[in-house]
Amino acid sequence: MSWRISLSPVRKIVLAGNWKMHKTQAEALEFLKGFLPQLENTPDDRDAILCVPYTALGTLSKSLHGGRVRLGAQNVHWEENGAFTGEVSAPMLTEIGVDYVVVGHSERREYFGETDETVNRRLKAAQAHGLTPILCVGETKAQRDAGETEAHIFSQLEKDLVGVDQNNLIIAYEPIWAIGTGDTCEATEANRVIGLIRSKLTNPNVPIQYGGSVKPGNIDEIMAQSEIDGALVGGASLEPDSFARIVNYKA
Ligand code: PGA
Question: How many CA atoms lie within 13 A of 165 on its CB side?
């Protein structure tokens, strides 16, 4: 049992796995068999989320029902229905027990034409239907090398958060050069950028995660940083032992 004593409201700790385009339904269930038993002694103040492909949401929703692991999708459309081939709406997600949704991941921005405007529309639609969005922001290597990290992230925040309720929001700072590369951002540098992100928010208690090559070997150091409230984890969330070790990080 750990206690966080503070005069201001305590920020939530959120450990989220982003499976991206991995795992069939059978593989997802196999993962749970190895993962869930390892969460029995996880401190209550940590939220654990699995953001999985649409096809695995229904199956996992049944298996996770009433448990401590919550379910997230990886995108959501802004309309409730309509002629939008290939898209999925918020009511379709909430109906099957989804609580969270990743919005504006750099892979969506880079490969699928996501813009700050569409990110903003998706965020507002998610919230309008009771989903909690996880907004991803972060700079490319070229932007970092050019000294444009802060300006880029501030621009993303300014555009993405127009009209967005900061009482129902999670932000993930994901430097693009650190995603899937094993080249983790220094924990102190991630802490610095996340502090800057927080300074731009109207609600300073928005949980802000770090994402980008988070592993069992670096999670303890990442979570020891004062501004970092959790992690968004890709590759290392695919193996039960590895993601369990991340959720059970040592404080
Ligand atoms: P990674 O991915 O942990 O595999 O670097 C993180 C992400 O893209 O959310």
Answer: 12
pLDDT tens sequence across 139-172: 999 999 999 999 999 999 999 999 999 999 999 9
State the burial class of residue 87 (Cβ atoms within 10 Å of its Cβ: 0-12, 13-18, 19+). middle
**pTM higher than 0.90:** yes
Residue 176 and residue 140 in contact, taking contact as beta carbons nearer than 8 Å = yes
Minimal-distance CA residue to ligand 1 atom 2: 234
Beta-strand runs (E) in the chain: 13-18, 46-51, 69-73, 100-103, 132-137, 170-173, 208-211, 230-233
Mutate to test the pocket of ligand 1, among 114, 214, 215 (most ligand atoms within 8 A of CB): 214
Q: Check: CB of residue 211 under 8 Å from CB of residue 234.
A: yes
Is position 2 within any domain? no
Which residue's alpha carbon is nearest to atom 3 within ligand 1? 234
Position in ligand 1 atom list of the atom nearest CA 181: 5
Report, as residue numbers or ranges, the catalytic residues: 105, 174
Residue 24 lies in a domain: yes
User: Does residue 82 lie within any of the structural domains?
Assistant: yes
What is the residue with the minimal CA distance to atom 9 of ligand 1? Answer: 234
- Please give all residues whose beta carbon lies within 6 A of any atom in ligand 1, as ranges: 18, 174, 179-180, 211-214, 232-236
Read off the tokens for 99: 């609580």
Domain containing residue 234 = 13-247
Is 32 buried (19+), middle (13-18) or exposed (0-12) by CB count in 10 A?
Answer: middle
Nearest of 46, 59, 62 to residue 14 by alpha carbon: 46
Domain membership of residue 57 (yes or no) is: yes
Number of domains in the chain: 1
